Fold these 2 entries.
Entry 1:
Amino acid sequence: MSRRRRPLAWPKRPVRWIEGDTLCISVPFTWTLPSVRAFLSRPVLWRKVRIGGPAVDLMPGYLAGLPGVTIGGDMPGVLQRVNPQATRSTLGCVNHCGFCAIGTGKVESGGFRELTDWPDLPVLCDNNLLAASPEHLDRVFDRLERWGWCDFNQGLDVRLLNEYHAERIARIPGSISRLAMDSMSLAPAWERAFRMLHDRGVAKARISAYVLIGFKTGPEEAWTRLTWLEKTIGIDPCPMWFHPLDALTYNGITAEQRALGWNEEEQRAVMGFFYKHRGERRYTARKPFRPTPANALRTAAVGTKAGCHSKPD
């Protein structure tokens, strides 16, 4: 087993490789489809092109009409082309969240199902791993214990996390648990899940939060949720901007989001203040809405369906 205990960075652009006389392309995000179409419209040196990925499943018509291009279909090993550490032990999800590509039925269709076998790798990309049976999870956790580290990469559903899950996760010394926080209504379940993991010895630094913002809620609710995680729980949350499932612009602000109070300044303020991957905080002069822990839990989510957040992978 590899001694590396840190996950590799995920590519932000489509992944390309050659198999025989075929150019293969995997497209994870819909906002990269315009650049892919422009690339494929140039004179080419390959005879055939095969293109797939979640973005193509969501918008198959966007690349229609390109000569020599086969659109969609499954190809074994594609996930490892994108990230050689990544694997899945289940497909689909038991939830049908309005913000998630899985909920449309166009991506990983066929309902939730457990795989009989999967590549033995430490970065788990299951959309809702904790929906699996204890028998399946025993096999998953046994493999991860042999690695000595893992990254539950897609956001664990805090409503499903129980003492069994927490105990097994705590037995993996280098586990990274990312807990979904899609709505302030999830705060009690989120804190309960956090305490179960932390009380069993999972270091606070190895527990993080995926925080979906911009989905049917405005800036004030986003600051409430993010500040609650930072001040009350004591962890660094990771805000994730909601993109419509047919978005062709990265971090674009829709008319619906503007009606909720979002604009470019509000978006930059939230993302710049909390998003640790950008380095030091640069927007403290904005004086944003900063709720106290006492009123944070009383702030209701506005029209958000609570659920396990999945990245548009």
Entry 2:
Amino acid sequence: MRCIHWKKRFTCANVGAVTKSCPRCQRALPPAATKLCVYCGAPLVRGATDPGFRPAQTATADPLVGTLIANRFQVEDLIGQGGMGKVYRARHLALDRPIVLKMLKPQLLEDPTLVGRFEREAKAASRLNHPNVIQVLDFGRLENDGTLYIVMEYVQGKDLRLVLRDEWPLGEERLCDIMAQVCSALGEAHVNNVIHRDLKPENIMVEARRDQPDHVKVLDFGIAKILDSDSPGLTRHDVVCGTPQYMAPEQATGSALDERSDLYAVGVILYQMTTGHLPFDGANSMEVLTRHVNEPPVPPRQRQPDAPISEAMERLILRALSKDPAKRPQTAEQFREELLAVPGQALAAARAATPPRSVAPVAAEATPAVRRSKALWIVAAATAALLIVGVAAAVAGPVRYRESVARIFADVKR
């Protein structure tokens, strides 16, 4: 039996019982909570409402499964659903490729605000052309009841929330690569005057490709703010939209937003990826938003001392979580460059902190060839000295001869 541990609050993965804590916000749940988290609304069982899992098998199949949409898209399976609609896996018949079909609930068609938001998602995503942004292929209405739908590319992989749940802790170089791609996608959005406003791990898909083990796609521009939109009522700056745990302080207070609000969310996700915890949490949304506005975050290395967090990474995260937008990275491209520089800075800091090893000089042991050469030199020197002394002996006499020979051998030995 293999258990999945993240934040030390998960039950065994192959047990069908409801978890004791929320898989999204990690809060302890009361016994009465059986289907949805009472705090953030996340599903508590592996079912159709959980974007990370296939829908649970039920006695009654979804009525759209097996139907043909707009004479082009064959609906194959329900893969998720939320407050605004359902998400299906389908097949584009003309191209013979899998696609995602996102459909607005029919009962919501009477609400012009929600319809406008759904249409704005299609408009916001369709104006973005980037390898790290989900590609919108089509948009329209069903002829029978006017249901709105968006057709998007199908991404094989899992969202970042599941990556963190299953694989935490992630190596710093890997998480920098993942979030650098997120910044690249945000940069494309910001250039086109689109602010995401709801960036969170569930909206970041990670797909393994042949040439890239972690290819990122940023999803769900459903509440994106289009800065040059002609429908200001749908994106008023004094309306709080988004997920409280990832909201920038200015977003929490309903103030005017710009691209730096998305970069704050990147900082929250980085904090979560490095520590396994959210920087700010609480019993309800208002408590979470109040902490975003008023409290400084606990430094990541203090929050999780055992996690492999470099000083460079901690500095960048704390900058991104600044209450003042002017103190954060100012553009997504700047944030991306700083992220990619973190592994090199961490390596340089580690080398600087390591004291150099002192190597004492060690006399090399003489090899046999060196010893033979030294012996021959001694013999040759002694022989030459004896010849010289022999000549001198004829003149100096026997006593001086013996004294000279003794001095020569003493010198040679030295």
